[in-house]
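queue> pop job 88
queue> type: inverse folding (structure -> sequence)
queue> payload:
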């Protein structure tokens, strides 16, 4: 029988959001969406111009291309010349540095997680070392183990992340994938929720 794919997560997340709007009691007040890699959904205000400028500062070849608007390239060129970032650009850089550091520290402190440093990207892709009982339970529910983990994380902590099964992991390994472009306070909330959930999950299936 064909196993469920990760679209069930998105559908269930929408159902939970509706349940929350209807005041159904949950252990959380909202679903934090890190699945799609949409910074706006994760709480970052729309900053298209700033993000484009930041992209050009990080990849200077963009300054000499027609990929970005003229005003973006002009601002990036001036910033690169001054070797200093504008306030919003610097804020995003600071946020990313903080989140990269905290994701690495917190996840690697949890038994059953191993996370490589995030370098030059907006996603973390930590590996899950799941107990045999969790893998067996996932099989019984016709799910890949990382999808099973993500579903439980959504239901119990209100955090929506993507199972790594769709990103071509090595056979026999399990991962989750989530966007780290979210405000620092939101990332701290996410990491706290994930830590509490993960500790209980590992205990339940030990």
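queue> result:
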């Amino acid at each position: 029988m064909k196993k469920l794919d990760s679209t069930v997560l998105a559908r269930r997340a929408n159902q939970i959001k509706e349940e929350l709007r209807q005041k159904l009691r949950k252990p959380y007040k909202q679903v934090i969406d890190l699945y799609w890699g949409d910074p706006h959904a994760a709480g970052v205000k729309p900053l298209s111009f700033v993000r484009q400028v930041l992209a050009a500062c990080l990849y200077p070849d963009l300054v000499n291309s027609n990929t970005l608007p003229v005003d973006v390239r002009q601002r990036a060129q001036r910033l690169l010349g001054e070797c200093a970032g504008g306030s919003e650009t610097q804020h995003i850089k600071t946020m990313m540095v903080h989140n990269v550091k905290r994701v690495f520290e917190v996840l690697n402190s949890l038994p059953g997680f191993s996370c490589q440093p995030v370098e030059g990207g907006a996603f973390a892709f930590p590996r899950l070392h799941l107990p045999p009982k969790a893998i067996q339970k996932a099989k019984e529910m016709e799910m890949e183990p990382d999808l099973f983990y993500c579903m439980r994380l959504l239901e119990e902590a209100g955090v929506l992340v993507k199972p790594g099964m769709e990103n071509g992991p090595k056979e026999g390994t399990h991962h989750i994938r989530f966007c780290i472009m979210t405000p620092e306070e939101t990332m701290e909330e996410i990491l706290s929720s994930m830590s509490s959930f993960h500790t209980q999950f590992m205990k339940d299936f030990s």
